[in-house]
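Figure S4 source data
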Amino acid sequence: MQKLRRWIRSRGSPRQPALDRDAERHGQVRISAVVCAYNRHDFVIKAVDSLLRQDFPLEQLEILVIDNGSAPPLRSDARTLEWVNSRRVRIVEEPRLGLAHARNRAIAESRAPYIAFLDDDAVASPNWAARIAAAFQQVRDIGALGGAVLPEWGAERPNWLGKELEVLYSTVNWSNHARFLGAGETLIGANVAYDRLKIKSLGGFNTNLGRRGKSLLSSEEAALHNLLAKQGLKQWYDPEIRVLHHIHADRLNIDWATSRAYWQGISAAISWRSSPDRSPLLLVAKLIYHSLLLGYDSLKQWLFGIWRPRSADWVAAKCWSRRRSGMIKGLASYDLVS
């Protein structure tokens, strides 16, 4: 929470850009801030509270909570009554389980030209919405925009968790200044915003991807970013669009990390096989390529297991080996005819 207090004491929000014609057509609402919720009521309350405390005109900020099968439902929590009664927060129930379904429901429900997603276990910095609005107003060719996702560790960070594995925990901090992201860099779904009509025209999020209950499938936002890139649109990163993301204690173990890496590989395969660029020849080439690299990753894991067992290097090699296995399984089990 020290990071949040520093945000509150930090410099004020940037000058608010004038409303554009899209905002006027949408009744002055400029941004829909969305929290897709699945259980974790305590964290959802904190996430929404951070949105209610934004340094941004409340009449221009719509707050949507998409309840994706929480048990019990969010509406049954007495703490949400104030939201409903004040009409500052709208709760929408999406019965189809899956983060991609919840995000697509948010796109359909939103009344704003821009839509920003915040994970249900994250809190936004006070100038989060203002920085998003400023970027959309001032920067051209944006397909997606977001910022730093800083970790709030639910338990002591283990020694084996090196920096290269932070991506498995949805943590990014690409730069100290605002810029377009380059090759190998991407925004994280815990903190990302879009032009709503642009992503709606692309069909929204791929519902074959993304979390679904306790499933560790992911990459629904990465698949969307690939579609936006094909239209010449880029990812804009602003470190001031910051969120603090809670890393749950039960995820700080090697079994979870390797499982997360494995499903990341499967997610990447599903994302590729959904692409119009796929072909039988390219599929064979990818299988050969990843099979060779799996041998290399497995050798590294074995060597580190001898020299530095349970070290950060060994765990990283184990995770990337599992990711490669997931990629191969995802590619090999795909029926090109379907």
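Figure S5 source data
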Amino acid sequence: MKRTERKSFLKAKMKKYVGKIHLWLGLASGIIVFIVSITGAIYIFNEDITEYTRQELIFHGEQDITNKRALPVHELKDIVNAYMKEEINSEDVTVPIDPNRSYQFGFFKTNPEGWNYFDTYLIFKTVYVNQYTGEVIGVHNIRNNIFFFTMILHRSLLLNGSIGSTIVGVATIIFVVMLISGIVLWWPKNKKARKQRFWFRWKNIKNWKRKNYDVHNILGFYASFFALIIAIAGLFLSFRVLGTYTYTLFNGGDSTYPSFEHYKTTAPESMETPETIEQIIGKVRELYPKAHSFGLDLEDHEEADHHHDNLSVYVKGGPFTYHDTHLLIFDDHSGELLFNRPYKDQSFAEKAVGIDYDLHVGSYFGMTGKIIGFFMSLICASLPISGFLIWMGRKKKKKQTPPKLTA
């Protein structure tokens, strides 16, 4: 056998094995890939749609606010808890930088032993409050929200968090292998074959099986590069250990994350007054006037289920992104600022790990990234279907082929 012939033989054999791997992995994970892809496409514009449809809650509509002062957060919390009469009290608030936006108080209770969505999330509500009057503008039950339901279906197939996310994570690993193997199978043998692989040439094609084959191959090829980014970013959300490995890689082999534990509340509790938290809110707004919002954990009292050594405040930089977060640490008794770390001061390793979610949903690249992510997710959802149809067609063809007669 000549050298060129042997090389062609080995290539053909390799493609055959790659094809079998692609086929069986696709059959094994197809339904999960479809569910995860279609729910991902639905969820991508969640925050944009929520912002648009919930305007009357997000914005309080209070007039002449420049001459008004917001009521103390603890007073607002008491108003909300009295209004809701839930079995739990709200102990956290999201404070907007924009004074035209409403304060949001959260009610959240889960059952750690629940095995599915309905058993796990017992209470999950957001209460919108006009901080200038104390009026409860409205209550949104997130547990019944279609986007939240879609997100949990996307992340864990509505199963217990650890079990469901592991199943989705394994299916995503298989999907990554399938994307790579798909590119190998797509790769044309020569220049002539290459012309047929980049776009649909259906002028003289009437057979739907051939058209389905082209859809699977051509759309799969164009989507594969973006889909790899989305899928790999998703793996970081399913398997947090990948973030540690990535951090270590970009941090020169050192896996130690920055520690801020030495910043502790030292002022006596007697110094804390209802005005302390207002002082903290004012300081955050002063330092980050162009940010979007920040959360405050108000649960630090005798009946609380946890206590903190300080008050750590994470300031969300943009409305639809999460990587650009600033960190402030306060003495929660005196309101003194102990530490301020803007996003720009994070190391490259921290930034590389922190962009996983925004990369996954496309928001890292703004609306353009979300639109691309939406269409790529739809294409990914179509691949298991078109691939299954190809397999069924070939299987049916084999059954119809008569056996060769021997003399």
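The two ends are 30 Å apart (CA to CA). The chain is about 55% helix and 10% strand.
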